[in-house]
Amino acid sequence: MTRLRRFDFVRLAALCGSGVALVALVALGAWLAIGSIAAFRHEGLSLFTGNDWGYRQESFGAAAMLYGTAVVSLVALILAAPIGIGTAIFASEICTRRVRLAIKMLVEILAGVPSVVYGLLGVLFLREWLYALFEKLGLDALSGDTILTAGTLLAVMILPTVATLTDDALQSVPSRVREASRGLGLTRAEATLFVILPQAIPSIGGALLLGLGRALGETIAVFLVVGRADNLLPENLASWRPLVDAGQTISSKLGGAETNIAVGDPLHSSAIVALAAILFGSVLVVTLAAEALRARAAKVMGR
Amino acid sequence: MKRRRMLDRLFTVAMAAFGLATLCALFTVVGIVVWRGAGAISPSFLLDELRGAGADGGVFYHIAGTAILVATAALVALPISIAIGLMSHGYLGDGRGRRAIEAVLHALNAVPSIVFGLAGLALFVNTFRWQKSWLAGGIVLGLMIVPTVAVAFLEKLRAIPAHTIEAASGLGLRRSMISTAVLLPQAASGLVTGLLLGLARAAGETAPIMFTAVIFSGATIPHGIDDSPVLALPYHIFVLAQDSFDPAALQKAWGAAAVLVALVFGLAIAALPLRLRIHEEAKRV
What we know:
Low-confidence stretches of chain B: none
Largest sheet of chain B: 2 strands, antiparallel
Shape of chain A: globular
Mean pLDDT of chain A: 92
Number of helices of chain A: 14
Radius of gyration of chain B: 23 Å
Largest interface: A-B, 89 and 91 residues
Oligomer: heterodimer
Number of strands of chain B: 2
Low-confidence stretches of chain A: none
Strand order of the largest sheet of chain B: 1-2
Largest sheet of chain A: none
Number of helices of chain B: 11
Distance between the termini of chain B: 40 Å
Shape of chain B: globular
């Protein structure tokens, strides 16, 4: 039996096209890994632990940026999580189907506001509002450009992500669960809090992690309001001080002038690439964890 | 019993408050942009070029630059996403291949936009010596939105009933025919939706283009590839937000923000009808 296999052009095109995406990803990973070797050689572990970033001194300890990135993103997540989850519960468990879709639509359209617009709002409004608040509270902040300002702005930015993905998570709990718990005489609050929420916890975790991932990588809005003060680590973590100080995140450093200054200086640009690698690495871990949680939850729910 | 009912009421009110808070926050954002931006917008603002360090004139070339970047991004993202979808559902079975494709898309989606910008700087500006070029920005933006476009396409492909494909192969169609005559047209709406959403995102991004494609003033329509920067709405707003104390320039920045938001919302709203239908269909399957 001779079967002539005709040349399959579509297959070749599909292979090439998908190959481009794969090659881009692999090349990006390789560039980040190889490009950061020089900086890791030069600094060793103090790239993470040292608090002495200064390219003129050729020292690249990024501890303050790691701290800044972590705190800004966590502030954003802590502010956005309750509001986002509450919104999702409202839309999914309390509203009628139509109202739920309307809310979801609005939230998803509004989620499209570009980060530079948030940045502009942060610079001209949030910064002033928070500074006035700090003064009223007697916190002697130097300006409105603080870790808290960046975190608050980011919270609004990731709110749609958290809300709409949590809504998906709640919706994926089968309706027979709702009916059964109502049939047992539970009120809506009890059914939601003790039956539906616990079942949706893994995928809500996924939703929060995706929000966190977005917060970690966000550059422009943070850049504009975080103050971009290098090497500032708080002395006393158990106070308001760390929040009302200016700071620097990995992304705000990468978005700044140093990226252009570093061109042509192998060590300095390697340090910049190392920062990019750390940033991508952390967002990647968070995103893949989130997707794993969501995929497992989807399997359990039998979708 | 009474206490339980009261707690239930309380719960409802609290959740409604959260929902209201979210909508209020988001409407405040849009409201401020409209309130501050509307005053700046006029026909001449849309059709004139900017003068005097952003204090005078309009944003015609910023809109044109953003349109060029977005169109290039579409031309980059569309074929790649079609290829990924057809590879996944036309040629790979249910198992490992598909999961690998999904993993690549998740990983690509996890690349922060600033990292895309730096990679573009390293490749196009420092290696190819293009200086700043619209093409570099378009390619970077295109790659960035591939996950958005491809995931929407895949979602729609997944919803094609198995018997449709079985019928097609029962008729003796080759895989290539099934891909182009069944899969692509049946899932085209997902592709369009994903593309619109992706382009909405690409239009608003600053970080991927600021090192590779845009300058603050002096560019018009580009004529070549190397040393052919464009102006863009998001970068313009970004620069003015940083260091403008000139109220006239800030007024223009708000105008630019309003135009940008209108553009992004337009794209997102255009994607909406298809999107909701996909969403609901996906649930029914």
